[in-house]
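Researcher: For the annotation table, I need structure tokens for ABC transporter permease. Please keep the output clean. Sequence:
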Amino acid sequence: MKNSSRFILNRAVFYLFTLWAAITINFLVPRMMKGDPVTAYMNKYRGQLSPEAEHAIRTLFGLDKDTSLWQQYLDYWGLLLRGDLGRSFSNGLTPVGDVIAVALPWSIGLVGLATVLSFLVGTVTGAVVGWRRGSRADVIVPITTFFSTVPYFWLGLIAIAVFSSTLGWFPASHAYDKGSSPEFSLDFIGQVIAHGALPLITILIASLGGWILGMRNMMLTVLDEDYVTVAQAKGMPNSRVLWRYAARNAVLPQLSSFALSIGFIVSGTIVMELVFSYPGVGKMLLDATAAKDYPLMQGLFLIITLAVLCANILADIAHAILDPRTRQSEA
């Protein structure tokens, strides 16, 4: 009990410090760049806005030149604690939170589902291939690894050319039909599934190789351990030895990689969303960078950071549950 409490305390302190550092860097980076977002915004309306308007905009965005950097930092924290991420220049000064909320479900739905499926399918397949080492199942590894070496955008373009342009099985772009608007109906859900199927399958194919190879290699290491040999010597069924002993320990290193993948779901697969013109957070981040929309960039980076931290916390919890030695070593 004491070790568990110390483990939780150590991890809590670490993640709180990491969160503070990430937010501080997120605050400082735009202010260290040449110029500032207000200047970039004012240049679009040169001659149309008065100096008073510029001062009002700087005050709105917490970039008033008469305010010290320390006070801006405190004001930034105050806004964050109230859930205010600022306003987006490239979206008519719409609150950043509202802008991100529009794109976030699309990235989570597409990339999230693809990431979870690729992890589950790849891990299970890798465990079986590792268990049956030396059999015909080994051919799965080079095939899936080959697809993992092909860049996402090439797979996306090939998929569009074959399954959309030639065969006409799937739409080539967007998240739903043009002229439609998001609504909770069977017709709209069908459109979302049809438009998301091709990018999801593409991400799945491109991601499987890494999960299969990683799990297979860990299985080969675990199968030489004494506890696996003892379990087999006791006459336990192969399925129980495979999943209860070998796979349970072999999957531990996979969890860290999966945690990072889960965290970056929020950022989406930028290139893939660009190829399929999918309205996710990845494409939004690219558009915000091109438009020099610093408040939106800050908001997106902050959301991505929080997602990665939360995913790592979940990975630590999973490690502690599956391997009690983790709690003891950390404590």
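Researcher: And a one-line annotation?
Model: DSSP finds 15 helices and two strands in the chain.
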